[in-house]
Amino acid sequence: MPTSLDRLRVGSAPDSWGVWFPDDSQQVPWERFLDEVADAGYDWIELGPYGYLPTDPVRLRDEVDRRGLRVSAGTVFTSLHRGPAVWEETWAQVSRVATLTQAMGARHLVVIPSFWRDDRTAEMIEPSELTSAQWEQLTSGTERLAREVRDRFGLEIVVHPHADTHIDTEPHVRRFLDGTDSGLVNLCLDTGHYAYCGGDSVKLIETYGERIGYLHLKQVDPAVLARVSAEGTPFGPAVQQGVMCEPPLGVPEMEPVLNAAQRLGVDLFAIVEQDMYPCPPDQPLPIARRTRRFLRGCGA
């Protein structure tokens, strides 16, 4: 019998339905996403890109409630390494998402650092490495964001290491964690992105367990990863080539990650994401059903 992973609250997200943007003709309508994520057996969802789901909290609450769903988090994108000049723009976006997140009863904001490639064209728009001054802006700006979000909305931020951002590889993640206050800033560990960038999720959980505040469950196809790494393929095109795959077909092996998270002895959201933008509209639901069945088999 599998170990009971009773500290993990499993959900899914619009990302697993090929949703990357608030409005895109290649994406499934939001009603279909909500219908199918409930059909697949999930209880929790994230908001996804702001504006994809209804932004009126009364309407959204009605839509999720009647499908037996609850919201675990909202998501924001930031460019805090650029310093105070971007604060007002950042806060305008964050406050919109935080207002809806709070209204839906969620407690987390997933914070994704800005890409150093354009997320549609994959064109390189800034250097992939930060200067020391930019690292200071990133860490101090993230702490400021955490304080403001906590004080104004009662939410906790969890920063998401992500491919093609400045918080990606193990050295970058360690530098970020070591440069931020553990009382303010924790991580959303995305197992797929961390593996994509060469990191070991179990090692990170065991080393920085007190900083793991949230999980995204994801796997990468090692054969596709080897090819796109050798060819220097940007993340967006790599996704189109199938670099992210459903468990248990990829890496990291999911059971050790889940067990390591359970051993932390704290309640954690474990939100399934499988980057598939763009994808045929009939592809996500069968994958979601299989993935939920697989996770139940692991005890989650």
UniProtKB/TrEMBL annotation:
InterPro entries: IolE/XylAMocC-like (IPR050312), Xyl_isomerase-like_sf (IPR036237), Xyl_isomerase-like_TIM-brl (IPR013022). Signal peptide: none annotated. Residues 34-296 form the Xylose isomerase-like TIM barrel domain. Gene3D superfamilies: Divalent-metal-dependent TIM barrel enzymes (3.20.20.150). SUPFAM superfamilies: Xylose isomerase-like. PANTHER family: HYDROXYPYRUVATE ISOMERASE, INOSOSE DEHYDRATASE. This is 2-keto-myo-inositol dehydratase. It comes from Streptomyces oceani.
